[in-house]
Backbone:
């Protein structure tokens, strides 16, 4: 199914005045083909496009909508906050309320600072780590995405211990020059690099569970090695929980791995669907931030009451009843994973499903699922494009990229999951895979 006439008409107009007609590249359907559907309205786990067609939504705004679209508690909180003033540029109780909810849920957080996106959160955490350590180098891993700060748009250099090269035009080589890039899941390579250059490293940055280039869960031993080498060399461990924070549970991937990072970054879920990012850690580090300390960071709309109200309403729902929501998310995720695996076997396709809680990814390739970006079959993207189109025809909306994940929300129910599994079964029979 391609976009309907109204989406096409809107898209044609949008492309005249917005690059590729979108506000973020992946939305343009470039890697799956066809034109993007324009959302018109959404509720729960479903949205209706500009042509009146309904879809089960597994993008969920790329992670924020863990409670589904237009959750009543979030809408009510946003409405009340907006009526009392949409932004103050000054401290307010709603900002403090979200900070207290975040701090209360994450054991190692003593202080938190709000920003307006995940990019800002990671960018600020890296600057803080550089300010605290007085060092410039950072280590990141291929396949991990941490937002679009210049020095994080960096591809692996020629050798393991060489600094990265820009992965985007407009990023000066000098910006990439302090970023070392390693493959995931290679403890020996990481320990070798740290043995050689650990004294130069301000921070090692990794996604809680890498979910931007497939879902690539790392072993506890690998995550423990990051912590160990950072301790050994006085580098800071930054755990990027923008996707996993409050998605995998109250203490995110840190809780899953039992690792205590020096700084953690958040976004998506903690904004309840409005623009919020955050970073936090121990007081000794966070108090190095302006205006208390020498590390500068600021933002006009940081902590604005409407976004804070949305985030607080979402977290209150998630934290209620001793975390019942996360148990429900895991139940639904397991139902979808089991159903898809049964379909893959029945249809004879050698694919696999990777899941952590309510995050799922389709590894459309033979053999065990990859644990590093380098292990992803490039041919999988073509298979995914055909599957994506066939699922759209059957009312199921997945991310328009083979490298993005599926998000289940508490608004998905057994009926939506079973409808999805049936659609996959029919779609796989219909496509050339
Ligand atoms: P934002 O600046 O997009 O709010 O967050 C950047 C970011 C940081 N860290 C992680 C682990 C992230 O996944 C992201 C953003 N995620 C992508 C989708 N996987 C955003 C979607 C988009 O760019 O349109």
Residues:
């Amino acid at each position: 199914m391609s976009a309907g006439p109204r989406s096409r008409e809107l898209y044609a107009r949008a492309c005249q005045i917005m690059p590729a007609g979108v506000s973020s590249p992946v939305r343009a359907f470039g890697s799956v083909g066809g034109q993007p559907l324009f959302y018109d309205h959404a509720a729960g786990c479903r949205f209706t496009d500009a042509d009146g067609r309904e879809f089960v939504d597994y993008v969920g705004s790329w992670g924020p909508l863990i409670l589904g679209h237009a959750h009543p508690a979030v809408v009510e909180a946003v409405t009340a906050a907006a009526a009392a003033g949409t932004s103050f540029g000054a401290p307010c109780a709603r900002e403090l309320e979200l900070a207290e909810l975040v701090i209360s849920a994450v054991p190692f957080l003593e202080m938190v600072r709000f920003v307006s996106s995940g990019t800002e959160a990671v960018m600020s955490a890296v600057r803080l780590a550089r300010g605290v350590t007085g060092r410039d180098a950072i280590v990141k891993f291929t396949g991990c995405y941490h937002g679009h700060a210049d020095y994080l748009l960096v591809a692996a250099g020629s050798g393991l211990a060489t600094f990265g090269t820009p992965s985007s035009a407009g990023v000066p080589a000098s910006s990439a020059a302090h970023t070392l890039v390693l493959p995931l899941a290679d403890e020996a390579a990481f320990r070798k690099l740290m043995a050689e250059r650990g004294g130069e490293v301000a921070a090692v940055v990794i996604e809680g569970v890498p979910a931007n280039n497939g879902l690539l869960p790392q072993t506890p031993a690998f995550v423990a090695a990051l912590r160990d080498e950072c301790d050994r060399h006085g580098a800071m461990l930054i755990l990027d929980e923008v996707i996993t924070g409050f998605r995998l549970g109250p203490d995110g991937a840190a809780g899953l791995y039992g690792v205590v990072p020096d700084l953690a970054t958040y976004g998506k879920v903690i904004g309840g669907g409005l623009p919020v990012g955050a970073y936090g850690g121990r007081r000794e580090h966070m108090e190095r931030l302006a205006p208390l300390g020498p590390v500068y960071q600021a933002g006009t709309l940081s902590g604005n009451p409407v976004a804070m109200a949305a985030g607080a309403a979402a977290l209150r729902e998630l934290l209620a009843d001793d975390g019942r929501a996360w148990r429900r998310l895991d139940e639904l995720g397991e139902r979808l994973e089991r159903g898809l695996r049964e379909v893959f076997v029945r249809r004879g396709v050698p694919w696999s499903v990777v899941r952590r809680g309510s995050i799922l990814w389709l590894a459309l390739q033979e053999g065990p699922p990859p644990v590093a970006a380098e292990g992803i079959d490039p041919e999988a993207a073509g298979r995914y494009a055909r599957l994506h189109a066939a699922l759209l025809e059957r009312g199921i909306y997945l991310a328009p990229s083979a490298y993005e994940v599926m998000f289940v929300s508490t608004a998905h129910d057994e009926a939506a999951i079973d409808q999805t599994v049936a659609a996959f079964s029919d779609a796989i029979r219909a496509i050339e895979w």
User: Anything to note?
Assistant: The chain has 13 helices and 16 strands.
